[in-house]
Amino acid sequence: MKKLLCSVLILVLAAITMLSFCACSDNDGYSENDDGEVFLYPADYDEDIFENSAYTDKVTDVKYIESGYSVLLDSNNYDSADEYGKLFYRFFDSIKHGDAQQYISYIASDYFTDKNPAPEKFTMQKLYDIEVSYVEDLELEYKGENIKVKDFIVRYKIMYNNGTFRADLPSDAVIPQHFLVGETEGELKILNIVDIN
Known about the structure:
Helices cover 24% and strands 29% of the residues. The chain is an alpha+beta fold. The N and C termini lie far apart (56 Å).
């Protein structure tokens, strides 16, 4: 009888362990460890994400929405977009290609600080379901001047996020952000990025 109870107990514990393992392995990065940290996949700086059919089967173009008009921007048509659409297409293209220096060039230099440093490098990022939606024109004080900026809400997901670009974003999850875009030093730049909680 004791042998039977031990066997049943072992089977129950094994089943619980298997269920826990399956729950963690099927969540595409949503799990958190005991410290509440986001699960991140291993980084591979040699990977070409455009050779991954699971990624290229997703919608990787930039959906740009302004004044009720929506267009999917890709490498063939983004030049026909307005200057803001072009900026966003190039911005996300630099992230997909893992080009940290190009990425930095689209953002105002004073956005980066000691607490929020510019990235030195990151891998190619499997961005998809990218959506940029115009909200409104604003006037704000920037570097001692009143300037006009455009506010956009931006959403995107990262497949198999490895954290080299964003360690705060679980794989396949969305954290919407406000992007403020305006001219500084004669160039159109992203002036600020703020999470929407």
